[in-house]
Amino acid sequence: DESEYTTALRDKNNILEIDDLHTYFFTDAGTVKSVDGVSFEVPLGATVGVVGESGCGKSVTSMSVMRLIQGPAGQIVSGSIRFQASDYKRDAHGKLIPKAGGAAGEYEMEEKIYDIAKMPIHEIHRIRGKQIAMIFQEPMTSLNPVFTIGQQLDEVTLIHIPGATKQQAKDKSYEMLRLVG
User: Fold this and answer.
1) What are the Cα distances from residue 111, in Å, to 26, 130, 134, 163?
2) Helices (H) and strands (E) in the chain — how many of each?
3) Distances (CA, A) of 109 to 7, 86, 133, 151
4) 171 φ, ψ (degrees, to nearest 5)
5) Does residue 30 register a pLDDT over 90?
6) H or E element in which residue 179 lies
7) What is the SS3 assignment for 79?
8) What does the alpha-carbon distance between residue 112 and residue 149 come to, in Å, rounded to a whole number?
9) Which of 25-34, 37-46, 128-137, 147-156 has the lowest mean pLDDT?
10) Using CA atoms, how far apart are residues 124 and 147, in angstroms rounded to an integer?
11) Which long-range contacts (CB under 8 A, 24 or more apart) does 35-38 make?
12) Is 142 helix (H, G, I), strand (E, B) or coil?
């Protein structure tokens, strides 16, 4: 039930609030407390830099926010990651609500605060890549070499735009590639 992972922000001027986040890796050699009590806020419209020594947990904190930690060895064991999102409104049956007077394929939106740490992994796809994203440190590993660039770009549109066709996804991918030259 969505009520298990929706919450409220402490400060409505924030887009992200991380409170007492603990992300651990359980290995044969023991438990690695990679992130052990991290807390910070990101105000709406602000740029926040996370700075620290190599190995201090910057990347694991970011990967936790994105829910990209590979389980079962890696786990968020406690804490909260509250994120202000804009999501599609759904009726009692979970169906998207069409926008009144809108074009075909346009749906009503609403603001929600998700606790990403509690969100089921299949639900994170609703916001990851569309509303919250990560730029990885190593550009050579950002794309999967098994799939074409086009397939990976098309996937973003197909996941986040309800009713998008393969041709619409391809057109959007071409547009994005043109924009970045």
Assistant:
1) 36, 14, 21, 21
2) 4, 4
3) 17, 6, 20, 27
4) -60, -40
5) yes
6) helix 166-180
7) strand
8) 32
9) 128-137
10) 22
11) 35/60, 35/61, 35/64, 37/79, 38/79
12) coil
Question: What are 34-51's pLDDT values in tens digits?
Answer: 999 999 999 999 988 888
Instruction: Give 19's contacts (C-beta < 8 A, 6+ positions apart).
Output: 39, 79, 80, 82
pLDDT for 139 equals 65
What is the pTM for the complete model shown?
0.76
How many beta carbons lie within 10 A of that of residue 47, not counting itself?
A: 6
In the predicted model, is pLDDT for residue 161 greater than 90? no
The SS3 call for residue 30 is: strand
134 vs 63: CA distance, rounded Å? 8
Are 134 and 62 in contact by the 8 Å Cβ rule? The answer is yes
Determine the 3-state secondary structure of 35 from DSSP.
strand
- Chain mean position to CA 134: 8
Q: What does the alpha-carbon distance between residue 148 and residue 66 come to, in Å, rounded to a whole number?
A: 23
Name the token pair of 101: 């007077």
Other CB atoms within a 10 A radius of the CB of residue 57 amount to 19
Mean pLDDT of 55-65: 92
Predicted pLDDT at 164: 87
